[in-house]
Amino acid sequence: MDSLITAAAQALATGDLLGALNRVALRDDPPALALRGIAMAQLGDLERAKILLKRAGRGFGAKEPVARARCVVAEAEIALVSRDLGWPAGRLEAAQATLDAHGDRPNAAHARNLAARRLLLIGRLDDAARMLDGIDAHLLPPTTRATYELTVAGIAIRRLRTETARTALARAGAAAREAGIPSLTVEVEGMAQALDTPAARLIADGEERPLLLDEVEALFASDALVVDACRNVVRAAGTVIPLATRPVLFALARTLAEAWPGDVSRSALIARAFGGREADESHRARLRVEIGRLRAALTGLAEVGATERGFALNPVRAQGVAVLAPPFDDRNWAMLALLADGETWSSSALAIALGVSARTVQRSLEALAAAGRVRPLGRGRARRWTIPSMPGFPTALLLPGPPPGS
Hints:
With 406 residues, this protein is α+β, with helices and mostly antiparallel strands. It is 56% helix and 12% strand.
């Protein structure tokens, strides 16, 4: 490798993007194209970066598998940043295997970290953690070590293991300072702020108050029966009852939990669960059926008793009842939580992350755009969506998560 390529690579490693470009801007050989592509990606010109990296990958011959694999890893990173979740993950896996086989441990670790970050985005926490297994962080260069620790912290935050997250973020911050890259330090500090910002609301005993993530962790570990409106589950004593696919039952459970230890009238339950303004006999009959289903779903955790005017929730073993709600009530919070990461998302990527149809996502985006909640960028297939800045809005409890109870 010639001196200009070496100097450009060193400039990139220290975050001197313009210095790197100055050294290779007029060259069209594959190594220069690859370095220019990486620099353009870090400057935010992702489309130009993708073109340069594809040209570089084609330019490297069959006798240069490591260089070609590195280009694939760089392409995968651009796909992740641009939230192109449909980018073929198999290419990254093959590139990682090539790098491992040729002893390029730092870049192989970076490839595994990118795969883990993609899995984290779509809520596959166990798979993301397994992807990081076998990486010895002490052997990584500072930049790669910082991004690895950020992924570890992200998994811990989503699992509500706040002490583990704080420890990983401390290591990430130290690695970022060692690398001397300001943008990386800012990313670490931004994730750390999520731990010290209210993440949800606690509704109990007729009162509401904000909760930090560590307080949510303590709530889940307590002896309370928790109706979790962030994940649409009911939790108590380590048992999790998923109700995300049974919205009527969850609406009834939440309404009863918010009124505990009091009861809720039949008309109020009908209005909350069915949207009926006036309760007629058909509504009351349906309510009896759904209350029976709720009793069966909550067996062992709580009983739903009839009262003179309606129904009341009675926990079996728990010492109290609480509702954990999103920071603000909005049925589109899962989508808003994804958009709040500051990146631009396509509707297809949102559909993959949320596990719903693209048409469902598109309808929600159009409604949010009409209300000024989201902003479209571009047209046609190139259209991306973003959200106006929402300072202090952590998303861990609202993002796609692992299966309940895992």
